């Protein structure tokens, strides 16, 4: 199916219910959400799928997902790169943007549910995670992308990863303010990170080939709110024709004839953040030709070979579809999480969460 045009106030509940159901059916009883049945789970994509459950109104399942993740947290606040049930699937690294993303998911869930108890219960995991991530921030403001299996920093930074952390720090700050916890240094760290992303390109991709060939490096600073709207629109316009295939979606890598659904969904939200609603609606309308009858979406489509590739229907792609649909229709109170920056101010009478 293609041609699903969404507008504010018209969330396609019946159409997307199978997509929510697909994530639910893949989720394990423990709360873990693997990429697909029999696959592994990584902390970032697990959270992306959990946010999809929240959009779909499956609040208990989403809570189980976050509590599962909190239960796997290491003493230093981090997580391994991936898990299969109770076993660690990848001991080689712990990635900072993966670790920080729990803050985004927890704040997203709270915005929708206003569940004070949930926010307080997940606070220790968020606090430790952000502490780990900021321990890897350099004097220049960027954040090392990972540590190795021995805990040694992999001393380089990614534009996409640091942009994701920038949004997570916004969410972590809002959680702390809501709970009345003083983490003012998080906001200062976020400011330094934003300055590096905007003004210090030499601090990224220092030890490997530039990642600018990846579409996420192009649009993630927009999606994460690093750039003001005018600069965001200019950034997206400059490389639009390189990455976007009309009628199909957004390429993952500029030179590869391969469009991917999740990156296309994230670009939809980046367009909304840049104030380009019309193109966001149009881009999202193309993506449902990659949908199966059970509500799952294929990872992507290879243009030259005319085939769906890889042979996977990931839960995180389903989550991205639900997040983009929410952003377009403003269905939930969290609909604007990725389309605007909102930093709570301390001491201004903002509602504080509490557990009675």
Any overview of this molecule?
There is one protein chain. This protein is of the alpha+beta class and 356 residues long. The chain has 12 helices and 10 strands. Mean pLDDT is 96; it is low at 352-356. The chain starts with 12 loop residues before the first helix and ends in a 27-residue tail after the last helix. It is globular and about 45 Å long. It has a single domain (13-329), classed as Glycosyltransferase (Alpha/alpha barrel). The chain has helices at residues 13-26, 43-55, 59-71, 96-113, 116-134, 159-179, 184-199, 215-223, 229-243, 261-273, 277-285, 315-329; strands spanning 82-84, 87-90, 93-95, 146-148, 153-154, 244-245, 249-251, 258-260, 300-302, 307-308. The strands form 3 sheets. Strands 6-7-8-9-10 form a 5-stranded antiparallel sheet. The longest helix has 21 residues, at 159-179.
* Number of β-strand runs: 10
Number of domains: 1
What is the H/E string? HHHEEEHHEEHHHHEEEHHEEH
Using the CA coordinates, give the radius of gyration.
19 Å
Strand content: 5-15%
Average pLDDT metric: 96
- Oligomer category: single chain
Into which percent range does the helicity of residues fall?
40-55%
Which strand order do you get reading across the main beta sheet?
6-7-8-9-10
CATH topology category name: Glycosyltransferase
How many helices? The count is: 12
Q: Name the CATH architecture.
A: Alpha/alpha barrel
What sort of overall outline do the alpha carbons produce when their principal axes are compared? globular
Note the gap between the termini.
48 Å
CATH class: Mainly Alpha
Q: Largest sheet at a glance?
A: 5 strands, antiparallel
């Amino acid at each position: 199916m293609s041609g699903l045009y969404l507008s504010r106030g018209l969330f396609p509940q019946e159409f997307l219910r199978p997509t929510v159901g697909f994530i639910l059916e893949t989720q394990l009883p423990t709360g873990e959400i693997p990429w697909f049945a029999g696959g592994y789970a990584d902390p970032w994509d697990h959270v992306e799928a959990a946010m999809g459950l929240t959009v779909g109104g499956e609040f208990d399942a989403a809570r189980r997902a976050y509590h599962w993740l909190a239960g796997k947290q290491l003493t230093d606040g981090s997580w391994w790169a991936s898990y299969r049930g109770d076993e660690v699937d990848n001991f080689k690294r712990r990635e900072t943007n993966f670790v920080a993303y729990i803050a985004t998911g927890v704040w997203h869930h709270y915005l929708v549910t206003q569940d004070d108890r949930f926010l307080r219960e997940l606070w220790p995991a968020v606090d430790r995670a952000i502490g780990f991530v900021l321990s890897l921030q350099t004097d220049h403001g960027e954040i090392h992308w990972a540590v190795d299996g021995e805990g040694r920093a992999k001393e380089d930074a990614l534009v996409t990863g640091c942009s994701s952390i920038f949004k997570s720090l916004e969410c972590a700050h809002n959680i702390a303010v809501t709970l009345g916890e003083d983490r003012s240094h998080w906001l200062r760290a976020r400011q330094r990170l934003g300055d590096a992303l905007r003004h210090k390109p030499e601090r990224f991709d220092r030890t490997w080939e530039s990642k600018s060939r990846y579409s996420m490096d192009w649009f993630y600073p927009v999606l994460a709110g690093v750039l003001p709207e005018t600069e965001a629109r200019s950034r997206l316009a400059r490389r639009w024709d390189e990455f976007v295939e009309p009628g199909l979606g957004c390429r993952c890598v500029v030179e590869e004839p391969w469009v991917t659904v999740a990156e296309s969904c994230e670009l939809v939200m980046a367009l909304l953040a840049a104030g380009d609603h019309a193109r966001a609606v149009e881009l999202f309308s193309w993506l449902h030709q990659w949908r199966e009858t059970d509500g799952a979406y294929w990872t992507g489509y290879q243009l030259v070979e005319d085939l769906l590739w890889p042979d996977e229907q990931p839960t995180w792609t389903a989550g991205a579809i639900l997040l983009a649909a929410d952003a377009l229709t403003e269905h939930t109170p969290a609909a604007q999480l990725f389309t605007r920056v909102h930093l709570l101010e301390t001491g201004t009478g903002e509602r504080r969460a509490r557990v009675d």
